[in-house]
Amino acid sequence: MSGVKKNLNGLPLQQLETFVASVGEPTYRAKQIFAWLYKHKATQFDAMTNLPESLRQKLNDIAFLEKPHIIKQQQSKEDGTIKLLLELSDGKRIESVLIPPRRSAVDSESRLTVCISTQVGCPLDCKFCATGTMGFERNLLPEEIIGQVSAAQTLTEKPITNIVFMGMGEPMLNYDNVMSVVEILTSENGMGFSPRRVTISTAGYVEQIKQMADEQRKVKLALSLHSLDNETRRTLMPITKKFSVDDVLEALEYYFKKTKKSVMLEYILFDGLNDSDADVQRLVKAVRRFECRVNLIPFHSIAFTHPHGFSASLKSAPQEKILSFASKLRRHHIPVFVRSSSGVDIDAACGQLAASSGYLSCI
C-alpha cells in the first residue's frame, strides 16, 4: 500500500470490497463498512463497533472519511426552503437545496426533498440558467455528490424522502459517478431510498438516456425540454445543435419501450416564446409516443448574474397563462403538474443555483 490515505465515503459496495481485499481483510467486512457509512451514517471508523479493533485501527491508518461541508446557508422566509453552499476539498464550491413540500400537498407532513448538484458549474450554457454563467470547472466525485444528501440531513430532524439530481451541472456528463451514487442511495444496506423517489434530470443526452434504459435503471428520468420547436429550443439550449428535438424524443421513446417507465417533461413557460396554442399542439403530438407527465415551471429571474443579450430578455409567462396552458394540455388527457416556486427570495428556485453570495454564515 502507498502512504496516501483513501477516502471511503462515496465508494459503492464493489469498490469497498476491492479496497478491503487489497489490505488483506475478508470481503464480507466491506458490507459491514458499507452499512456503517450509508445506513448508520458513521463519521469515524471507531464508531463501527462490529469491526475488530485491529481493523478499525488499520482503517484509521490507511483511510479517512471526508464529505463536503456546509460553509454558508440561507433560509427562505416565504416557504422554508434552505439553500446550502458547500466547500469541497480543493476549495471549489457548489450549492444544494433542501425543499419542504407545499403546505397544501397531500404528503406535506412526510415529504422532504433535496436537490443536489453533479458538477462544479455547467458546460451547457442554457440561456435561462444561472449555473451556466459560471462556466464549467469539473465533475463531482461520488463522495461530493452523496455528501450533499448527508449535509442537508444534518439541518433537519425530519428525514429526507426524495432526491432530485436537478442542481448545478448536467448529470449525464458525469454518468458513472452519478450511477455509483444512485446505487448507494437505493441500496437497502445503504441509504435506503426508494428508486421511485430519486429523479435524474437531463438536458437531453441521447446516448446516456438509452444507456439508462439498457441498464434498466429503476430511478425516475426527467427531461429539461422547454420547447418542441428546434429553433426555439436551440436558442434556449445550445445542446439542441448536437441533439435535435427528434433525436431526444426518439431516445425517450426507446427508454419507455425498454423500461415501461414514464418520463417527466420539464417545461419552463416563457412569455411569448413557448406558450402558444401551437406549442400546446406540439406537446400533444409528442407525448403520444411514450407515457409521460408534463411539469410546468415558471421562469425564475437570473438578473443577479447580470445576463445580457437573449438571456436578459427572458420573462416568465404570467400565472394565468401557465394555468391556461395546463388546462389545454389536460383537455387532451395529459397529466400536468404546475410546479410551485420554492426559494425564489433566496435565489434557490429552478435555474437559480450559481454558488453566489447572499448567505448567512453557517454556525
Description:
The protein is an alpha/beta fold and 363 residues long. The chain folds into two domains: 6-64, DNA polymerase, domain 1; 69-361, TIM Barrel, CATH 3.20.20.70. The protein is 31% helix and 18% strand. It is built from eleven helices and 15 strands. The protein has helices at residues 13-22, 28-39, 53-62, 142-153, 175-186, 206-214, 230-236, 245-259, 277-286, 310-313, 319-330, and strands spanning 6-7, 63-64, 69-75, 82-87, 93-99, 113-115, 119-121, 136-139, 162-165, 198-202, 220-224, 263-269, 292-298, 336-338, 360-361.
What attributes does this structure have?
363 residues, TIM Barrel, 11-stranded mixed β-sheet, two-stranded parallel ribbon, disordered C terminus, alpha/beta, 2 domains, 18% strand, DNA polymerase, domain 1
Rg value: 21 Å
Number of strands: 15
User: Which stretches are poorly predicted, pLDDT < 50 over at least 5 residues?
Assistant: 357-363
CATH superfamily of the largest domain: Aldolase class I
How does CATH name the architecture of the largest domain? Alpha-Beta Barrel
* Overall SS class: alpha/beta
CATH class of the largest domain equals: Alpha Beta
* Total DSSP helices: 11
Percent in helix: 25-40%
